[in-house]
Amino acid sequence: MPMVSIITPSWNVENLIGETIKSVQAQTFGDWELLIADDCSKDNTAAVIDSFAQKDPRIRLIRQPRNGGPALARQAAIEQAGGRFIAFLDSDDLWLPSKLERQIAFARERRAALSFTAFRRINENGSMTGRLIPVPNFLTYEQLLKNTSIATLTALVDRDIAGNIAIKTEPYDDFCLWLSILKAGHIAHGLNEDLARYRVRGVSVSSRPLRSAGWVWHIYRNVEQLSPVKSAWCFAHWSARAWLKRRKF
Question: Which one, of 34, 209, 214, 202, lies nearest residue 127 by Cα?
Answer without folding.
Answer: 202
